[in-house]
Each structure stands twice: as structure tokens, then as C-alpha cells.
Design goal:
Blueprint (H helix, E strand, L loop, with lengths): L3 E6 L4 H12 L4 E8 L7 E4 L2 E7 L10 E4 L3 H13 L3 E4 L28 E3 L3 H17 L1 E10 L6 H15 L31 H14 L5 E8 L6 E9 L5 H10 L3 E3 L11 H4 L5 E8 L6 E8 L3 H17 L1
Parallel strand pairs: 1-2, 1-5, 2-4, 5-6, 6-7, 8-9, 11-12
Antiparallel strand pairs: 3-4, 8-10, 10-13, 12-13
Helix pairs in contact: 1-8, 3-5, 3-6, 3-8
Length: 334
Amino acid sequence: MKLYNVAIVGASGAVGEEMRLVLEQRNFPVGKLKLLASARSAGKKFPFKGEEIPVEELTKNSFGGVDIALFSAGASISKEFAPAAVEAGAVVVDNSSAFRMDDEVPLVVPEVNPHDIKKHQGIIANPNCTTIIMLVALKPLHDYGKVKRVVVSSYQSASGAGAKGMSELISQTKQFAEGKEINVEFFAYQLLFNLIPHIDVFQDNGYTKEEMKMVNETRKIMGDPNIMVSPTCVRVPVIRAHSESINVETEKKITAEKARELFAAAPGLQVIDDPANKKYPMPLFASGKDDCFVGRIREDISQVNGLNFWVVGDQIRKGAALNAVQIAEKLVEA
């Protein structure tokens, strides 16, 4: 088996750490693993296949001999260092927003558009987490009945804001339990016992940047500029795993029974849809899992070709680290 030298940029962050775990769990053919991060993380050690791998400071000279570089350190870092990785001969799989809407960069969910990977010119973009989770479920519906319009409300966990977001929610929980004043530093408001209908910055059209990512990325990944998407993104007091309430209008009628059949046959998707026995997807059960889970499948009583359903997926895994590693797996298959 051919082995590949892999670098993880942002190795000490929540997604970077998950990338390392996923590479090992899926037995990706890693020859040498290089962990890269800022100077303050340099020297830390993380386990990988029985070894302790030290974190090195990221520089533009870090990519010699690297075949695949998994980036998860933010858009500014990707813009600065990804070209250096490509110049050194690596293929970059970038988890930030830096290149997602670049016409020269494929934006890929392997269950949806794996064929786009071969179009890369050194960089492949990993979509936004909410987009990934939604499209794993939309793809089989689109293939069967062509999706025209999507109205989606996301219930996004603290993990979507990274390690600091999770830490703040945990801290607020402890503070409440101990009768202390609840401290708010990272989020705009207290997240504990609250919902915040605001993720990323507001745009001139009243939608947030996070919401517009779902609009634009969906069209690019599905290869259909005519799909209409209206999202509302909400931060909820859940540690890990995002949920989405999705209403879809299709050109061809899709019954709830047919939708269950399509979902059950789709890769990366599991159906949990037995409301009579209180069985439906929840973050509690999706956390740490690779697949996305779909349930509450029902026909929209307000329109003929409408369908409602509920999807849950682990933001750190399928919404980020796992999707990136799956892209790398497709790369080495080619």
C-alpha cells in the first residue's frame, strides 16, 4: 500500500485534533504525520498510532515532502499558507471559508459531488458544516425529484464555534450549578438556557454570513444555481452536533414513504424515524458519530410537492474533520 505524508494545519484546535483521530480511526495510509500550529502550540505532543507527535510552528517552509495538507486554522491562515503548501507539492484540503467560492477550487461533499475532486488545481475546499449536514440529506431527494426550494433553520451547537465556544458553555453550566454569576466572553450573549439567532456577521440583506454560506455553497456543490435556499442559523446550548429543520419543495412529488426509502439508501445517512416510539435524531446520539441522521419525515400539508424532515450531524466530524479526510481518501483512490 502506498503511504502518504500528511500535514494537519491547526493541529491543536478542536477540528485539527479530530482530523488526527479520524485519520487513525479510518486507517488512512499515513507515512509521516506532521502537526502544524502557531508558535504558542509548538512543542505540544499528540498521540498517533502509538507515537507522540510534536507540534511544529507553521511556516511557509513547513510543507517539504508533504503529499496532503489538511488545513483547519481559519481563512487568513489558509490564504497565507495554502499557496506555499501547493508550491511545495502538496494537495490542500481546506476547512476554512477562504477558497469555497473560488471558481477554480472544487467545493466537495464526497457523498454529493466526488467527481469535482479531480478538477482541483492544488486546493480542495471543505464546505461549511451546516451545508454539509444538509446536503447529505438533500442529495438523494434532488437526484429523484429535483429540489427547487429549501427553507432551513439550523440549531447549531457550541462546537461550531470551536474549542472556545464549547469551553464557554461548559463554564457557564458549572457557574450556574455553583450559584455563581454567569460569565459571557466568547458569544454575544449567555448561551446557557438561551438561543442566539445570530451566527457570524449580518449582511446588507438581513441574513448572516453563515446563512449566506448555506445559500451559495449549496448551489455550487449541487451544480444548480437555480436552487433557492432561505436559512436561519441559531446557536443553541448543545456541546456538540448540529440539528436542522428542513422544508423542501421539489419538482416531482416525493411522498414521506419514498423519502424514507431514498434516505435509507443514501451514503452517510441513517434513518431514525419512529415518532410513535419516540425515536428521532438528536444531538445526544449523533455526537461522535460519522453518519448524519434523518427523521421526523413528513409531507408538507401546506403545499403539494413539499417535504419536512429533521437532520442531525456531528459538526466536528462530518461537518469538518471527517469530510476533509473523506476527500483525502478520494484523492488517494484516484
